[in-house]
From TrEMBL:
The gene is LOC101860933. Residues 267-277 have a biased composition (Basic and acidic residues). Pfam families: Flavodoxin_1 (PF00258), NO_synthase (PF02898). This is nitric-oxide synthase (NADPH). Its cofactor is FAD; heme b; FMN. InterPro entries: Flavdoxin-like (IPR001094), Flavodoxin/NO_synth (IPR008254), Flavoprotein-like_sf (IPR029039), NOS (IPR050607), NOS_dom_2 (IPR044940), NOS_dom_3 (IPR044944), NOS_N (IPR004030), NOS_N_sf (IPR036119). It comes from Aplysia californica. Its EC number is 1.14.13.39. It is an enzyme of class 1 (oxidoreductase).
């Protein structure tokens, strides 16, 4: 009732469905009356064609009797289904349709958010998955690898978040090469303008001369094509707190995006520290490099100095 639902029939009523998806504000859905009253009246053999048969009143009395009975016997706790009885197919369909309809309605009300990644050794992909977890309470989000993405779809995006590394000599990872080419073509033709909101997180290592170059290029290209930066490009240096930089950028991006699309982030998720980070890809010799460290004298075992 705090959400604005008003009982229609008194103390015993058909409660609405209240759906809250992954911490988002709950949404109230009234159960359509024809899904409740008419099937019951039909089962009771009442004439639903005419109100003068008082079929609604009689059906309501039966519902009240059933509710009282269920409270007395706690039937939902003790009921054991007959073994092979199963449910008749036609009884399952209305609920499936209803739940599908309600779920689609909830998702359809949300802004679409595509999280695009390109990765050589799995870090960007893992970050993209984390970003998805942060976005899904507020957006209709999906994660897509650049190699499976058509650049022409950029025109259909609402919110585009890009997480990508740089490889070789400031180049895209292999699974980002087609996207890179497509984006360059698009700019060359300068025919299409895209209007979505976007932000980019660029991974790299300052051990290389062209630090996080590809991510920065994607950021500039999207801006040149007309997209609106909802938050400035984030940079994650492999040698210096890359995960921390990502967390900071991701938190700020979700907040900025919610603001841009008039979504109110719920306080609980906002205050919650992102502790559920998924483990970044396992160690393999070809994905890590050993770097020489400055020589330090062995510490004294007693003093630790
Ligand atoms: C062979 C190799 C080449 C790299 N080239 C660059 C580069 O040109 N610029 C840069 O900023 N980082 C470069 N890096 C660092 C990667 O971008 C960095 O390790 C990043 O975190 C990898 O992310 P990913 O797992 O998503 O591919 C290179 C790394 C390797 C192993």
């Amino acid at each position: 009732m705090n959400l604005g639902w008003k009982p229609k029939y008194g103390r015993f009523d058909v409660l609405p469905l209240v759906i809250s998806v992954a911490g988002a504000d709950p949404v109230v859905f009234d159960i359509p009356p024809d899904l409740v009253m008419e099937p019951i009246a039909e089962k009771l053999g009442l004439d639903t064609m005419s109100n003068s048969s008082l079929w609604k009143d009689r059906a309501l009395v039966e519902i009240n009797v059933a509710v009282l009975h269920s409270f007395q016997t706690a039937a939902w706790l003790t009921h054991v289904w007959e073994k092979d009885r199963g449910m008749e197919k036609k009884k399952q369909i209305p609920f499936k349709i209803l739940s599908h309809h309600l779920w689609s309605k909830t998702l359809a009300q949300r802004v679409m958010c595509t999280i695009l990644f390109a990765s050589e050794t799995g870090r960007s992909e893992s970050f993209a998955d984390n970003l998805y977890d942060m976005c899904k309470p507020y957006f209709n989000a999906k994660v897509v690898c650049m190699k499976d993405y058509m650049v022409s779809d950029l025109c259909n995006e609402s919110l585009l978040l890009v997480v990508t590394s740089t490889f070789g000599n400031g180049d895209p990872p292999v699974n980002g090469q087609t996207f890179d080419k497509g984006l360059k073509e698009m700019i060359k033709n300068s025919a299409t303008l895209i209007e979505n909101g976007y932000s980019v997180f660029a991974l790299g290592s300052k051990a290389y001369p062209h630090f996080a170059e590809f991510g920065k290029t994607v950021d500039k290209s999207l801006s040149d094509l007309g997209a609106t930066r909802v938050h400035k490009v984030g940079e994650g240096d492999e040698l210096h707190g890359q995960e921390h930089s990502f967390d900071t950028w991701a938190g700020a991006v979700v907040e900025a995006a919610c603001k841009s699309y008039n979504i109110v982030p719920d306080k609980e998720s906002k205050n919650k520290k992102e502790t559920s980070r998924k483990a970044v890809q396992a160690w393999t010799p070809d994905t890590y490099r050993l770097l020489p460290q400055p020589q330090t004298p062995n510490p004294d075992l007693c003093t630790g100095q």
